[in-house]
Design brief:
mainly alpha, about 0% strand, 16 helices
């Protein structure tokens, strides 16, 4: 850990209150996050309009998560390439693809193969973007400000959750899901402009051409070795792999469940999801308070348990009020966890390994997501969306106790 801090302090960084580049950076994230929430409402409704099948949504979600198997490759790329250039290319390309989907659907020319192909490409770009963004933040802020920035980023993300779904539901109900995606595409271009205004440190590393592949494979190995040897990274990754399997069962069928099973309209769905954003903002604020009194791992344990129970309640009720409460508790739980996990990874990792460690960790935690999404679609066709959601909640709750067992095992 000391090597991580010393490496990070070699470069002079601005005090947080005067660090305008990081705030412009996060401002671009806010715009992008709002657009993402519109996308999450519009896409399932588009699939439902084309096929009417939860299995098709499961296939789409699985394909979108299939690039998770390539996540380890994004680590060396984020550590070796110009991070600012990577972020700009990802934002621009994602904006074009999402706009294309919206235009095709508006013109009634969209087919499922368009969506399937887009899902894979968007998945690859999103993974590369996320890894690069994670690795960029510690180069822009002082180490002592990392948790503050991570929690602030969580607040920004959840502000997007608050605004985006209601806006998306309103646009869809008044106009067309295709228009919602076109608006979403503009959020990527605005985020592109925000990133273009900042300087992200980059040290070019030249290598002989015949050694590039060997070096790349070596980079992958170093990332995996570091994660497996660092206990806190290793067992938090294992637990998150289990919990995200459960939450993906829930998230894959969420919109289908609200639309087809509970029979909610687009505006009510948007309001429900947006109120979840309030819970998430509360969670992001609470994590800064809780970290003063309890460890990150205790926060993660209670949040996993609380989140799993909220998913079970969500699947077991059709009451609109209880659905709102359960969703708000669930999003608050996620918001409590995310800054803790990000800070654990960043403070235990040397700066030159940040991309590889984040990519390796995400690979471990997300490796089962394509299977989970496909399983959610298939099971929903057999037993219904309510049962699938409850199963997801049970798995998420169990992951909290698995964390306790791993902590006890590591101390023996």
């Amino acid at each position: 850990m000391e090597s991580a801090i010393s490496s990070r302090n070699k470069r002079q960084k601005l005090e947080l209150k005067r660090n305008y580049p990081i705030f412009r950076y996060l401002g671009g994230n806010l715009i992008s996050f709002c657009g993402d929430q519109i996308y999450l409402v519009a896409l399932p409704l588009i699939v439902l309009a084309i096929t009417g099948s939860p299995l098709s949504m499961g296939i789409f979600a699985a394909l979108e998560r299939l690039p998770n198997i390539l996540i380890p490759l994004t680590g060396p790329l984020a550590d070796r390439l110009n991070r600012k250039a990577v972020l700009l290319v990802c934002d621009f390309c994602r904006g074009l693809i999402v706009a294309g989907i919206g235009i095709l659907f508006t013109l009634e020319q969209l087919e499922m193969w368009h969506l399937y192909a887009s899902a894979v490409i968007l998945g690859i770009l999103t993974q590369l973007y996320s890894t690069t963004q994670f690795a960029s933040i510690p180069t822009l802020v002082q180490n002592k400000d990392l948790h503050t920035i991570n929690s602030f980023q969580s607040i920004i993300f959840n502000t997007g959750v608050l605004v985006g779904p209601t806006l998306g539901g309103l646009i869809i109900s008044l106009f067309h899901p295709g228009y919602a995606l076109i608006i979403n595409s503009f959020s990527f271009f605005l985020a592109f402009c925000a990133v273009a205004t900042i300087t992200i440190p980059y040290e070019k590393q030249l290598k002989a051409k015949d050694k590039i592949l060997i070096s790349f494979l070596s980079d992958l190995k170093v990332g995996f070795e570091f994660v497996f040897k660092t206990k806190i990274l290793n067992y938090t990754n294992i637990v998150l792999m289990i919990s995200t399997f459960g939450t993906t069962l829930f998230l894959t069928v969420l919109i289908f469940h609200l639309k087809s099973t509970v029979q909610l309209g687009e505006i009510k769905i948007g309001i429900l999801l947006s109120i979840g954003g309030i819970g998430a903002i509360v969670g992001s604020l609470l994590t800064n308070i809780f970290k003063k009194y309890v460890s990150y791992l205790k926060i993660v344990f209670f949040s996993l348990l609380m989140g799993g129970l909220s998913i079970i309640l969500f699947g077991a009720t059709t009451s609109y009020l209880l659905l709102i409460i359960a969703n708000a508790i669930g999003t608050m739980s996620v918001a409590l966890i995310n800054p803790c996990i990000r800070t654990i990874r960043q403070t235990n990792t040397p700066e030159h390994l940040l991309g590889r460690v984040q990519a390796t960790s995400r690979f471990i935690t997300w490796t089962l997501l394509p299977a989970s999404a496909l399983l959610a679609g298939g099971l929903s066709s057999l037993v219904g969306t309510s049962s699938v959601i409850i199963i997801g909640g049970v798995i998420c709750s169990l992951s909290a106790f698995i964390l306790l067992c791993l902590i006890k095992f590591s101390h023996n």
